[in-house]
């Protein structure tokens, strides 16, 4: 059971904006630990999308943006495209567990 | 081009053992912390274990502590996961992943393609 909770699914039409939330607690996100976001296309390995709450690795489109506030974080996808249809996971560190934790995952569907 | 290639997965009976390997190329392996992350069929991602660049710091998830052992050989650019006393709930795709490309951020920045481990009688 994950300590980071995400909405199971979100959907949007091409070109729309969708947001994915990641809710943690005072032992992980709320403790100041950074949040990362990963994209997992069907049948493939996860890919780092956002690190350090807001930073994009080279090659990640600026349609993807991250934010963090309090015990939660969010990933926004603007100008939704068909190739964005995937599972998205948040990740942080938890001091109570002394280990890394992932969110429950969100499936993004492009209508 | 950076490549991480896992191997060693397969079918094993409950209580059995398996050793996974991850061969790295295209990067200065000894500069990176290495990690194992798993994903049970149809489920989410679960961090399993981490080892620092020089093997000084090793950490495990509670779910595998005492049963799994992570190690690395920087001379061979390889990461290992010795899995003992395997249980049905250990069935998953096991990914190796690097951490350290973006400084001190706790980001798993490069991933292998994964190797499937099935624990069943």
Provide a descriptive summary of the structure in words.
The complex is a heterodimer of chains A (111) and B (121). With 111 residues, chain A is mostly beta strands. Helix content of chain A is 0%, strand content 46%. Chain A is built from no helices and 10 strands. In chain A, the strands form 2 sheets. In chain A, strands 2, 4, 5, 8, 9 and 10 form a 6-stranded mixed β-sheet that branches. In chain A, strands 1-3-7-6 form a 4-stranded antiparallel β-sheet, with no helix packed on it. In chain A, strand 6 (64-69) and strand 7 form a beta hairpin. The radius of gyration of chain A is 13 Å and the shape is globular. Helices cover 0% and strands 51% of the residues of chain B. The termini of chain B are far apart. With 121 residues, chain B is mainly β. In chain B, strands 2, 4, 5, 6, 9, 10 and 11 form a 7-stranded mixed β-sheet that branches. In chain B, strands 1-3-8-7 form a 4-stranded antiparallel β-sheet, with no helix packed on it. Chain B contains no helices and 11 strands. In chain B, a hairpin with a 5-residue loop joins strand 4 and strand 5. The A-B interface holds A 2, 33-34, 36, 38, 40, 44-48, 51-52, 55, 57, 89, 91-93, 97-105 and B 35, 37, 44-47, 50, 59-62, 95, 102, 105-114.
């Amino acid at each position: 059971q994950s300590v980071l909770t995400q909405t199971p699914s979100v959907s949007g039409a091409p070109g729309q904006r969708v947001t994915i939330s990641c809710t943690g607690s005072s032992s992980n996100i709320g403790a100041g630990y950074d949040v990362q976001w990963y994209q997992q296309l069907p049948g493939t390995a996860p890919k780092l999308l956002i690190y350090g709450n807001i930073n994009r690795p080279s090659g990640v489109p600026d349609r993807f943006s991250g934010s963090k506030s309090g015990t939660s974080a969010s990933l926004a996808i603007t100008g939704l495209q068909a190739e964005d249809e995937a599972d998205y996971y948040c990740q942080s560190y938890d001091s109570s567990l002394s280990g890394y934790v992932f969110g429950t995952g969100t499936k993004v569907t492009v209508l | 081009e950076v490549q991480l290639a896992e191997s060693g997965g397969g079918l094993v009976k409950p209580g059995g053992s398996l050793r996974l390997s991850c061969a790295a190329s295209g990067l200065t392996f000894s500069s990176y912390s290495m990690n194992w992350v798993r994903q049970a069929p149809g489920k989410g991602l679960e961090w399993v274990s981490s080892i620092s660049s020089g093997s000084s710091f090793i950490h495990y998830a509670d779910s595998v502590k005492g049963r799994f052992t992570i190690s690395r050989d920087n001379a061979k650019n390889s990461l290992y996961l010795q899995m003992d006393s395997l249980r049905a709930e250990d069935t998953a795709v096991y990914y190796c992943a690097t951490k350290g490309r973006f400084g001190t951020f706790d980001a798993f920045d490069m991933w292998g393609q994964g190797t499937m481990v099935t624990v069943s009688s």
